[in-house]
Amino acid sequence: MRSQNQMLIRNCRHMMPTGATCQSPATRDSAYCYYHLRLHSHHPRPLKPKDLPKLEKLDSPHGIQVAITQVLNGLLARKIDPRQAGRALYGIQIASQAVEGAMAARLASLAERIHPKPSSPAQEPCLKSRASAKKPADSSSAATAFC
To answer: Residue 14 phi/psi, 5° resolution?
Structure first.
């Protein structure tokens, strides 16, 4: 049994793109916080004409997902012309490909830092059989040697 001093605070149920849940407190009569309540509402607030061209920054996968949601909500609420929505989604698709390419390049550079490639053949270890070498092999040495 809870005492009167302890209050139960519900957290927002919104799932982030990473799979984690939002940790903001939910509003009184909803399962979502103030920000995500507008995102998940069945009756999105009407978009003002000055708000239409403003999308989330398209420099991260999260920003792209939010921008797609904004365009689709505007389309479903009949606040954006289907042609405008198509153009916006095409622009978001191009931005998504650019972000994907930038992330792949960043991962490749990180992999290069972790596992650097040898810059010249002289740095690579070269195994030669001593039997094929012109020097006589003595019985106490190993069968192969580094160049």
So the answer is: -65, 135
Whether the Cβ atoms of residue 117 and residue 138 lie closer than 8 Å to each other: no
> Is residue 146 scored above 70 in pLDDT?
no
How many H helices and E strands in the chain?
A: 3, 2
DSSP characters for 37-77? HHHH-SSPPPPPTTTTT----SSSHHHHHHHHHHHHHHHHT
Indicate whether 136 pLDDT > 80: no
- 53-112: per-residue pLDDT in tens? 567 678 888 888 888 888 888 888 888 888 888 988 999 999 999 988 888 888 888 888
- What is the Cα 74 distance to its own chain's centre? 25
Residue 120 token pair: 């010249």
- 82-114 vs 61-76: helix crossing angle, rounded to 10: 170
